Vacuolar protein sorting-associated protein 41 homolog
Amino acid sequence: KEEWVCLGFFVQEEDTEEEPKLKYERLTNGVTEILQKDAASCMTVHDKFLALGTHFGKVYLLDIQGNVTQKFEISPVKINQISLDESGDHVGICSEDGKVQVFGLYTREGFHENFDCPIKVVALHPQFSKSNNKQFVTGGNKLLLYERNWLNRWKTSVLHEGEGNITNVKWRANLIAWANNVGVKIYDISSKQRITNVLRDNTNLRPDMYPCSLCWKDNTTLIIGWGSSVKICVVKERDPTEMRDLPSRYVEIVSAFETEFFISGLAPLADQLVTLYYVKDSSEHMEEEFRTRPRLDIIQSLPEGCEEISSDALTVRNFQENQCRDYRLEHSEGESLFYIISPKDIVVAKERDQDDHIDWLLEKKKYEEALMAAEISFRNIKRHDVQKIGMAYINHLVERGDYDAAARKCQKVLGKNMDLWENEVYRFKTIGQLKAISQYLPRGDLRLRPAIYEMILHEFLKTDYEGFATLIREWPGELYNNMAIVQAVNEHLKKDPTNSMLLTTLAELYTYDQRYDRALEIYLKLRHKDVYQLIHKHNLFSAIKDKIVLLMDFDKEMDKVVEELKDRPELLHVYLHKLFKRDHHKGQKYHERQISLYAEYDRPNLLPFLRESMHCPLEKALEICQQRHFVEETVFLLSRMGNCRRALQMIMEELADVDKAIEFAKEQDDRELWDDLISYSIDKPPFITGLLNNIGTHVDPILLIHRIKEGMEIPNLRDSLVKILQDYNLQILLREGCKKILVADSLSLLQRMHRTQKRGVRVDEENICESCHTPILPSDTAQAFGVVVFHCRHMFHKECLPSPGNVPGIQYCNICSAKRRGPGSGILEMKK
C-alpha cells in the first residue's frame, strides 16, 4: 500500500504548531479507472471490503486498496444507497428508477422488486444473515419494512408515510432511524413502536440539496447533522411507573450546537466527532485558497456547544463543481478509517500513528521530542530508527552551535558503536570543539583507541591547563600513553617552568606511572598539601632522606613563628598548644620543648599532652617531672616506660591512695602487679578493706583472704565479705544477662542486615551503564538481564564488568577503583 501522507490532500488553515490529527490518502487502483468513466453516488464500508455505487447504476465490491473484486450491473440510472449486514454476507441496493435488490454475496437467495417511484434508501437488519432476522427497510415516499415469514414469503408493513421523501435511514441493533422532509424518527423494532420525532431546525434549506446525515455512535446514541445543526440523541428506557400508553423508550437530546458550515457527513471517533463540511462560495470571510473545498474537522461535543480539535481543508477532484449533497462520509469502526466520497474522488482519512508523529516532530525540528517518542515506542515504529533520529538530533545541535548539548547526547545515542564515536570525535575536532565532547567519552571497559584520548589531551594542553588537569584526574591512566603525555607536559614546562598547575598535573602523571620519587620532589617544591598522604600511602620514608631540606622548607611558616616567639615562652606555649590540638603531628619536633612549657605554664594539660603525644622523649619528660615532684605524671611515664612496679610503689608510698593503686592495677591487668599490691597492703588493715571491696572482679579474693594474719582487726570486714559474695552473684547474673542480650542482639542485627540487603535500589530507563554508556534497562524487559549496582550508585550491565578476580563473587566499581585513585567504594553487589 502506498505510504500515507499528510500534505497534498489537505491544507491547514493556520500556520500553527499544532500537529494534525489525521493523515490522508486517495483511494486509487480500480477506483481511479471507475471514476474516470463514471461518478460515485454512494458507498458503504465493511471491515472486509468496500461497496461503491455509481451514477450509471453499477455496484463494485472493492478491497481496502481500491481493487475491484466484483461488479454488479444493477440499473441504468444512479444507485442511491447500498446496505450491508454486519457479517458482510448480504447486500441491499436501491436505485433512482425504483429498483430494490437484496441478495447474498455467497448464496442464491435474494429479493428483487421494482417500485413506481425512486427508492432513496435501503437498510438491512444488522443480523440479516440469521434466519430469524430476515428484515430490511426501503424508503421512497414512504418507509416500508419487509419481513420474511415462516412460509418463506416477504411480508410488507408501512412504518411511516405522508411527510415527503425518505432521505436517509440507519439501522443499529433494534433501532431504525430515518429522516424525511420534516425531521428524524426512531422506530423500535422489538416493541414495534416509534419512540421519537426530532424536528428539523432550519426549514429554509431544501432537504434534497442539504440532506440529513445520520450516524449511530453505539446501540443507543444517534448523531444527527442537518444543515449547520448537530444534535446528539440518547435512547433511554422509560421508568415503568411513567409508561401508561407511552413507548417503553424515549430519546433525550444530550447535546445540540450549530456549526459554521453545512454538514455533509458525520462519524464518531472515540468520544469526539468527525464532521465533513461543505463550504459555500458566499462565505466572505473565507480566503480564496479554502473556498468550496470540503473540510474535515474533529470536534469535541459539549452540552451547549462544541470545541474544534482540528480542521483540514481537503483538495478533492472537481471540488469546485460539487454541492453539499455530493459529499458523503463513511467510516470503518474496526480501524478508525474515514472515507470522504465525492463524485470524482474518494479520499481515505486515518488517525496518525507514532511514525507520523515522529515525522511531524522532525519536520518541526523538535528532535528531542522525536527521540523521546521513538525510544518510548521503539517496538511500534516501522519507518524510523532510534539511532538515526538521535544522529539527526546531534547534527541539528551542532548546526545550531549548541556543542555541549550535542556532545552530551552522543553518550546516549552512540552507545557501544565505536566507529560512530570516533567519527563524532573527529567531527568535533574539525569544528574546534574537542573540549565539548571530552567529558562524555567512554572511559570504562568500553574504550576508544588511545590516540583519540591523547588527541584531546594535547588539545587541552595547548589551550586550557585547568581543563587538562581535570581530565588527568578524571580519566584512568590506562586510556592513553602516559609517557607520551608526560613528555608533552615537560615540553610546556620548558616555556613556563613555574606553572604550579602543570607541575601538579605532572606529579599526578608520575604517580600513575609509579614514579613516586619524581612526584614527591614536585609536591615538596610546591609545598602541596598531599605530600604527607603520598609518603604514607606509598611508604616513601626512605625516599625523603635526601630531601630533608625540602621537607623542612615545606613547613617554614611554623618555624618562622617559633623563632619569632622564642623570647616570649608563655605565648610560644599558647601557639604550640593550639597547633598540637589541631594536629598532633604538625609540630612534633617541638614536643620536647613543650614538656618544659607545659610544666611551667600549664600543668593541668601536661598529663593529657603526655598521653596524646607520640613524639616527646620519655626520659626527658620523666626527668622534668621528677625534678618538679609531679607524682601523677611520673607514675604515667614510669608505666609507659614499662616500670609498672615503681609506678605502683609511688602511688602506695607517696600518694597513699589505695583506690588509685587498685585502679592502676586494673589498667595494667598484670598478675604480678596485683601480688605486689597485696603484699604491700597485707599489714595495713585499711588497704585490705579497700582490696576486699574492689578486687573481686579481677583477682580471686581467696588469695587475699588466705594471706590475712589471724587476729588482725580489719574495719568493716563483714560488709566487705558480703560485698564479695554479692559481686560474685552479680557476675553470674551479668554473664547470664549478657548471654541473653547477645543472642537477642545477634538475631536483631541479622534481621536488620537481611532487610538492608533486600532493600531495592531504584533503576529506571534514565540510568545508563557506566561502562558501555547505554540505558541500564534493556529494550526488551521480557528477556532475562543482569544489572550490578554498587554502594556508590554506579551501575553496570553484568556482562560489562570484568571477572571478579581472586575472590569469587567480589566485584568493585571500575570508576571508583580507577588506577590508584579514589576510595574504591564498590563494596556492594546488587543483581536484578
Q: What stands out?
A: Residues 717-758 form the longest helix (42 residues).
